[in-house]
Amino acid sequence: MKLDRLQPLSETAWTLTGAAGAAVKLFATRDLLEAMDEKVLEQIANVARLPGLVGAAMTMPDAHWGYGFPIGGVAAFDAEEGGVVSAGGVGFDISCGIRCLRTNLTLEALVPCLEPLADELFRSIPAGVGEEGSLKLSVAELDQVMRGGARWAVERGYGTPEDLDYVEEYGRVEGARPENVSELAKKRQRGEMGTLGSGNHYLEVQVVERIYDREAAQAYGLAEGQIVVSIHCGSRGLGHQIGTDYLVTLARAASRLGIDLPDRELACAPIKSPEGQQYLGAMNAAINCALANRQILTHLAREAFRRVVPGARLDTLFDVSHNTCKVERHRVNGGERRLHVHRKGATRAFGPGHPDLPPRYRAVGQPVIIGGSMGTGSYVLAGVRDNPAFSSASHGAGRAMSRRQALQRWSGRELIDELRGRGILIRTKSMRGAAEEAPGAYKDVDAVAEVTEAAQLARRVAFLKPKICIKG
What we know:
Elements: E1 6-10, E2 13-16, E3 24-27, H1 30-35, H2 38-47, E4 53-64, E5 71-77, E6 84-86, E7 97-106, H3 107-110, H4 114-124, H5 139-155, H6 161-164, H7 183-189, E8 202-211, H8 214-220, E9 226-233, H9 236-256, E10 268-270, H10 274-308, E11 314-321, E12 324-332, E13 335-344, E14 346-348, E15 367-370, E16 378-383, E17 392-394, H11 403-409, H12 412-421, E18 425-428, H13 431-436, H14 445-454, E19 458-471
Helix pairs in contact: 4-10, 5-10, 7-9, 9-10
């Protein structure tokens, strides 16, 4: 990205000068910005032109260009001022997120079991393009999933009620409307509950290699040498189909209502319009589907661990979604407002004292997870007070190059062998998929985490090093 149109506000925050619409703010260092695609700036400037935006349209340090709205983008809209909801601002993989589990195991104790554990997890976790699991649901049962979220899964024996205390919205969002979801979307999901998917989705066994904030680490139950598990996936085919369906619906609504879209991929409708309400009902149904999916995968991971390591305990540390539009209350210019906050490839990051946090974490802030690539590492951070981005933070390392470019540079087989030499076991059904997700195709996750902290979006708590990675 060229910086000639940007003005620095600090070493980690920049604004766009001379643009139409509301303000634009990019959280990044000069180096991270220069490595970003030019289209990130074009896309976030387009978001700033949408009706009813409150404050600035923002990007996180891991931003890269996406469909209409940049991945790593954050924008809040006020329904009372004609604010809109945008399917492109949520993304296709609705509620893609990370479930992080802490274990009672140490790396030292687990080393002899790493190979059989990798094999058992690979057998137990359905992964891959269009891969289905053993759970086949009727349309009526899927409607129950979409209303009940992770609570539905726990009620059917997939996990424990204690899990729900550490899932956003305690496992279920309000406002889900399965009747707003197409039959095609439901058909695509009937066999996909409890599956990982493909692309950048993964299940990783990681070790806590470094602690930055001992108070928060203690609250989260983390210690150096401890094994944790991260599950990254979303609402699978259902969410993707909802995104596809409503891009058309919202584009027609925008045309009917005379909304001048700077980019057709930003299809949107006023939050209070019939189309806006229909989309929000369907999107909330997909969020619940994703929460249930990660709950089932948590159960499958526990079973796999216990078959290899009897006595293994995996407790939910936190479950946070990335691609959502959530109704939240935020203080703006001294007053509290009810806003619809879009986070596409960004994570919520409530600071200490927030009433929606479970009591265990209320003093230190919400766990925030920056998922890295399979060869580098991930970070656990904590939300901070006075976050300048509507309580939002980075969600991952962020791609530095396209999948096509990665395929031209890396061989899946060679990459897996190289990682094995570094002590990281990869299990995947797709060598192509492994090459597409090569660590070198992503930004430097250390830099993203450091800038996230420097920009006061969240503070680092722990660094996690991968030991086993299961991919589709």
